[in-house]
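lol ok so funny story. i was supposed to be doing the assay writeup but got distracted and ended up predicting the structure for this chain instead. priorities right. anyway since i did it might as well share w the group, maybe its usefull for someone
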Amino acid sequence: QQQQQQQSTVQQRQRWLPHHHHRATGLPSLSNTPVPATMGNSGVAAAVLAATTAAAAAAAEASPANDGVAQDRAMIDLAITQFFAAHRRAEQADDIVRQARSGFYRAALQVKRAMLQAEEHIKSLAAAKKRQLSLLESQLFLEMARERDAIQQGWAALAQEKMRMTEEFGSQLNPVVRVDVGGTVFVTRRETLCSVEGSFLEALFSGRHHGTVSADQTVFIDRNPRCFELILDWLRDPSISMDHLQSDPVFCHELRYFGLYQAVFPPTLYQLFVIAGADSTRTALRSIEIFEVHASSGG
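and the output, tada:
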C-alpha cells in the first residue's frame, strides 16, 4: 500500500512538472523520465530534481539565445527545493503526531488499569468492612441477649427472694404498727402503709428493711407530722382529693420524700391543638397537629 501511494505521488509530480513548465518556459517534457516505484520520498525528490536539472541544461544548450531559460531554471530549482523541504517538515510533523498519539494511548491505558485496580481495591475494602460490621453486629446481639438474660434472671431471683421473705416474716409481722413521725405517734395497719408499691413506706414496713424501732416496737421517722397525717389520710382512702394541696411546697416535698407524689397527683392528659400557618401572608392554614402531653403543675 505504501509503494502504491509513493507511485501515485511520483505520477502526480511527473504529470504536473512537464506540462506546466513546458508550456511556460519551453523546456523539454519530463513525462518520459523513469523513476523507480520502490524509492522513498527522498529518492523521488532526488530523481525529480536530477531530471529537472538535466532538462533545464539541455534546454539551455539547445537555445543559448534564450535569456529567460536560466531564470526559469533557477525558479524551478527553488520551487522544487521548497516543495521537498515542506514535504520533509510535514513528514516530521506526522511522526510527532504519531508519537504523541501512541503516548496518549499508552497513558490512557495506564490510567484505565489504575482505575480498575483502585475500583477492585475499594470493593475489597468495602467487603472487608461489611464483614467486620456483620461480625460486630452479631457480637453485639449476643452480648445484648446475655445481658437481657442476666437481667431477667436477676428480676426472677429478686421476686423469689421477696416471696421468700414475705412467707418467712409475713406471719411474724404485726398487722398493726405504731409510727412516730416527728414526735407524733400514729397507729395504723401495716397493709395501709404498704398499699403503694415502690414507695418508701412500702419498703420500710414490708419486712425487707428495718428502721429505727423503739422498745415498744414503735418505728420512728424524722419527718413533718402535719404532712404525714394528710398522707396517712390519703393512704386510708385514696379517693380523697388533694388538689388543693398541690400548690403547697412543703407537702409536695414530703410526698416526694416518701415516693408518693405520682400516686397522689397522677399526670393529667391534655390535648394541645397546634395550628400552623403563615405570619406575614394571607395563605390559608394548612395543617393541625394534635399532641398528647402528660403535664402536672407540681411535677
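The mean pLDDT is 75. The chain has eight helices and six strands.
back to the writeup now i swear
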